[in-house]
Write a structure and sequence with these properties.
homodimer; 159 residues; alpha+beta; six-stranded antiparallel beta sheet; 6 strands; binds threonine
Chain lengths: 159, 159
Amino acid sequence: EKQVVTGIAYSKDEAQISLRRVADKPGVAAAVFMPLAEANINVDMIVQNISEDGSLTDLTFTVPIADFDRSQQVLEGAREAVGYQAIQGSTDVAKISVIGIGMRSHAGVAAQAFEALAGRGINIRAITTSEIKISMLIDASYTELAVRTLHSLYGLDRN
Amino acid sequence: EKQVVTGIAYSKDEAQISLRRVADKPGVAAAVFMPLAEANINVDMIVQNISEDGSLTDLTFTVPIADFDRSQQVLEGAREAVGYQAIQGSTDVAKISVIGIGMRSHAGVAAQAFEALAGRGINIRAITTSEIKISMLIDASYTELAVRTLHSLYGLDRN
Ligand SMILES: C[C@@H](O)[C@H](N)C(=O)O
Ligand SMILES: C[C@@H](O)[C@H](N)C(=O)O
């Protein structure tokens, strides 16, 4: 069986900011990310789930830790335009990514990652996926354990 | 200035399923995606945002429309193991992706996409990003308008 997972990447240089309960209507995402871009802040992950009630949703993104304070300032300045009800953030996160090819047609790859991390008691705090990358945010203290667990799961720790 | 966006991809063959208010503890994601993998359902996007209260969060994923009913059945079977409080779904979604290279270091690319779609009244229902792909879920009826808008934004409609 062809090995689809080719590597595990991780970054501890990630700070997470979540805007809670923003209006789910056109223009809100732009009102968040245009000012960040104008401030030359490089946003890495953006995660927005579908609104449950169709009117409010949450918007989370990650930036380098060095840009955490500045990002929060930018967002405080954009509060009126964005209309979020609360803002939360943490520098205690790490991004773990499973890198591969054609993962969409290999239904179990993500499931196996989730199961392996669960087996180590590692809580998966956010998830985004594409055909070539499964990215997860976890508590930074679990980074090394997560990477080792996934290397072992996918047989990447053999020479 | 180097052009970082190389193309716009879209898929109307996407059905969205959201599990509302699952426990944010190890094992829950595995309990959702292992049964789907065992049923040979190819999951495309997975979106999970960070829990606001640290105890509950939502989990959304997309599958081909032909697998929508089967996916819901699998999840109803997994209800006890997963413990979601509600399940919602729709086949009226399309996935729009901005494909590029090194987009993390080009802070405005995503922001511009959000602004351009907002300018057309297109609501962005979910977002996931990586360095090479910005993926958004929108209402399927806006697919063509969204693709044309983004082609034009990034100058991809010239020959
Ligand atoms: C929440 C935000 O993404 C909003 N739906 C928008 O289109 O801008
Ligand atoms: C919600 C789900 O992702 C959970 N946090 C888990 O680790 O499985």
